[in-house]
Amino acid sequence: MPSFADGNKDGIGDFKGLTEKLDYFTHLGIDGLWLTPFYTSPKVDNGYDISDYYAIDPDYGTMAEFEFFIEQAHKRGIKVIADLVLNHTSSEHKWFKESISDPHHPKRDWYIWRDPVEGNPPNNWESFFGGSAWEFNEESGQYYYHAFAKEQVDINWANKEAKHAMFEVMAFWLNKGIDGFRLDVINFLKVNDTFKNNPVDENNQQTHLYDKDQAGILELIEEISSFVHQFPDKVIVGEVGSEEIDVLSTYSGKNKLDIVFNFNLGSIPTFHVDTIFKQLRKMEDVHHEDQLPTLFFSSHDMPRHISRFGDEGIEEERAKLLATLMLTAKGVPFLYYGDEIGMRDLVHHDISLMKDIQGVTAYDLAIAAGKSKEEALVMANEKSRDKSRSPMQWDNSEYSGFSTVKPWIAFPEIREGINVKEQLNQFDSVLSYYKKLLELRRMHPALHHGEYELLEKNGDMIYFIKSAKGERMMVLINFGEIEVPFPSEAHSVTDILLANKRKNVDGTIQPGEAFILYLEGDKA
Ligand code: GLC
User: Fold this and answer.
1) Which N-terminal stretch is annotated as signal sequence (predicted)?
2) Is residue 252 situated within a structural domain?
């Protein structure tokens, strides 16, 4: 939200800016947007700490500007889903202010309060940002629970009134015309009421056994789902923090979340064809008919994949290959702004410029553990999610056309040629390649929602055949350094819909090449 386009020129992205850029999405062929939280927030964690669920943060504009944005998006056939944080509120939220004010306050139980155990926190649960998940409150002598920052206080979903209040929040935004939600850390809503310690291994790594995926969570998800789906044509995308695809898959499908992210694919730290292929296969094996895989490699929580995966010299090539995969394999693709022009990571050389709480916390913990400032900065950059949060690069001016004043966050060092204006007219730019893929995806049911007839790998080439509505397409993507022969299924093919390098086929797929071949059907 804060980094896409700054309409009122204060250095922070806003609804005015987003509205002005709607034609860009149309031009590119995007038909749905997911916005990170835009509600009033002290922004300790990029807006994932909401202090008023019913208002637009003044940095992002007014309610009227939000409504105008939705209206204009819908006019262009673009759907908008809102990121909603149901797990926790900001410590600045009035509910929490009431809860903390007095142990006998009716809202005390809206949050999770526990007594100390022998002068210590109630248990060993760790915050996902590091350190204890319990914060002591001197006045009452109790601790409150926060799975993330201490300014993000977990709601007690066992409390009926708190739960009801959150359902009212959902209704409010659905009535405003939002097309659905991306539900933040949705498998965290319930914690184990025995409050037992989480297991810790010999390397001091904690397994989050009792603070997520707890009994009753799926019933709660079903309630949320049936509530949201009373409103027609709404979609719920869930962020389910789990590495277990079998666990993930219990959260989606009929009466549950419509889609859940598979981070085993999306957030792999380094490039690995085998892992990518294994995940594509696994999603196919595990998912039931009513479940769709997700296809993404970047987000506001992880480094950009072009920086993460791109071996030196072939960054753009790899970005194009991955775009081919995301936009043609089976599933719902999520593209992260700026990836379509190949934007790079923002790495800080000065800790005072770092905005992300996860990075700053890592820095503070490193210093507290006796590390030097240089070492702490390295560790902070490793954790920092600023990497992918720099301003969108629209042109090659000083502030990249994002704003006319200095933006709230810095730009990456590598910026030259990486902007919309320059790439729009270059036929072989990353942007043009994305545009072409999106166009093909829209035109061809086999690419858009086809089922796999075949999903294979030969060396480092992933290839598959997908079909729908009498159309059959073959996609071949050679991620490796060795040429691979055309698979037998593609021998007779001459009809090439897309090729990223050579426009002809000679029975081989060269390193870094991708092809989309037309096997059968009425070609549009
Ligand atoms: C989700 C968000 C992340 C946020 C966290 C806590 O993982 O994607 O940005 O920090 O939830 O709300």
Assistant:
1) none
2) no
